[in-house]
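Hi Q.,

Before the meeting this afternoon, I wanted you to have the zinc ion prediction in hand. No need to reply - just skim if you have a minute. The sequence and ligand are here:
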Amino acid sequence: MQSRWNDEDANRYAEAARAASQSDALGLRIYSSRIIGGDPDLVLHGGGNTSVKVVADNGSKLMHIKGSGWDLDTIEAPGLPALHLAPLLEVRDGPKLSDLDMVALLRRNLIAADAPNPSVEALLHAFLPFTFVDHTHATAILALADQPDMRETVKRIYGSRVAYVPYVMPGFDLSIAGDLVYRENPGCEGLWLENHGLFTFANDARKSYELMIEFVTMAEQELDRAGVTLTGPQSNDGQEDQDLKLRLERALSQSNSPFEKAVFLDYRSTSAIRDYVANERLEDIARRGTVTPDHVIRIKPWPMIIEADASEAAILEALEAYAARYRSYFERNAARQSEPKQMLDAYPRVIIVRHKGMYALGSTEKAARIAGDLCEQATRAINAAEAYGKFTPIGEADLFDMEYWSLEQAKLKVAAH
Ligand SMILES: [Zn+2]
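Predicted structure with the ligand bound:
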């Protein structure tokens, strides 16, 4: 992976920030967030987050962190709201905060009352004692992070430069766990989040960004070493069957479907997707879960699979089977929750057409396209993960906790507006 850093561009962003009475650091943070967001093999659509710590005119420390609803590739200063840093650090050694308490703490410390909600990873960004903190879900990292027992391999690849964080749910728990691992490994330059992604940090914008590029490159080299080719984004060149599309549209727009009013179908058929949908173990692999936890809110825990010649009746049958599977997943997992949960709709967001390609579904064109982009990246990560070892993402219980996490559901609502 190549660094996209360009000093002239960086200076332009720093100057623009100065002209707007903001700090140079915020300008550089906007710049490096955008070059991260510009690479689909680092982050996609609202994925990943970045922060910068600055000192206000009155001497108090602030942290700018990505706000909910913003994408890194188009981020601007309002998408990186500032918070008072000191009160965030106080909770580090305190009791566990509930989701509501954490959001309240973050909102209470925002400088602008009308700012978007800070990222759910804000506390981890705050705890890490570096000016710049970058977090991505890079494709090469996911191919390796979704493997069983990677602690020793991560150590072999990165030595003491990257510390290993076993999977914990994003939010408060990950912030505490990540901070603990950092403190046990002083001098590390990054955190490897099992089943999730990577953090890098430095006091210099370029250094933090280029550590990310360097560590992702090392993951690519590890795949190479194992004889695994990680393909880059590919052209969507497979032929779409318009008759099948019509049958799908009719089946999906039945009454009581979330797509009753409108359904958008985003078809993808790249060579990596065709490899994946032709895999003889497709059912097994597709049901294991999503490549990174937050994908589950957009594409559900697993796709539905149909044959290329499926009739409308066969599609309806597949939808029913999907709903039954989804309902039992919900019931099994809702039973162990302390608070009652309300089941979301039991329709897939991804429909795989065996040997051909895949459809991402949305009730808006944008939702379908976003889901399609996530699947395109996920497919490349899964193919590489299977070629390297065994694609092993978070299990059903963790997928459920993520899908039914109130903070993730809130994110979707923000995105809908
Ligand atoms: Zn993440």
